[in-house]
């Protein structure tokens, strides 16, 4: 799942579009991130000037007229600075089952957008160019967010530039805690801390759940995978061209045991079969103290749709399984990469094209307009908690200073960013894996004496034979 914070999207993304925002392999459509729209203050001029260079940029389907218009405008701006560069457009959208064919037929675009999950496999298959030298000579290299860059840094070399991203979080309703006289758990919290808080807030008679997990659809498996990761587990690995499932493990069993505790102690909604929107709506209506979600989406829904005060919400990282452990959550996002089969001049131009409009004031001005538009409508702006830039960079400070000028901006606790850790989603057939795990979770929530080990083993065997074994890795 690649859910994004909806608050800062829309108008900003259309105002300053970074071409080629990736499509998602999820059940929900992800809007282009505002981070994807920012650009570069000082354009490097190290592009071939004496001869024509043609690159193929990733575009959009013909029916996406507005996005194509924005792309054309960006091409025009780029060519005004670099007139020897010509463009072709290709509306192919990345698909992990098609990229091998595109590379074999030499028909992939010069640059394309892919997902956080794909870094290692694309590098291993030599389907992305090594851009380490270009990154190292780029003036903004030191300003890039290390956590968000991580999925495309392999063996110390860089192969992709992040556009946007999220790390899974848990949003807490502080008002419910206060009404019950319960202190908030420490932000450096554990699974036991979450359970303790849920027990104290839980009030089934009033229809208030201690914790709201997503219980139906692929999002149920997406939610659960965060606990698999926190327990030190993984979904799959690539072994000699074969996708092998790993979630039938001690970590997977611990994650299922945690879910069983939630159900056995009646800490989840009585109607637990909630999809993504259902869970966020329940939280926004005050029917649960905590909900799991990517970035600031839960806060956005609760504040701007549910009418909850922004002062009554706080966003936590995923809890660690033990005190002092990693607060690992699912990391998702979109990345721009370069086709290694293009020649060196094309790769050089493609890197310039990708990064040319990073770190400009255009994004700041668009953000300002969005905040002011929302203020006029009595709505709150929910910024992304993670962006392609470091918060400590000059650009990051400008962004932070801009947000501080307005009282209708939601603020994250600084500890969130210092504590959280991101691990990318499964590389192959993540949605089918999530869907099968949703069936497992539903069995845990409905079966009194469920055999967790057997249930997990059966699911693993099914996913392996019906899904993973059928993946053809070119």
UniProtKB/TrEMBL annotation:
InterPro entries: Bact_solute-bd_prot1 (IPR050490), SBP (IPR006059). Residues 1-21 form the signal peptide. Pfam families: SBP_bac_1 (PF01547). Gene3D superfamilies: Periplasmic binding protein-like II. Keywords: Signal. This is ABC transporter substrate-binding protein. It comes from Paenibacillus marchantiophytorum.
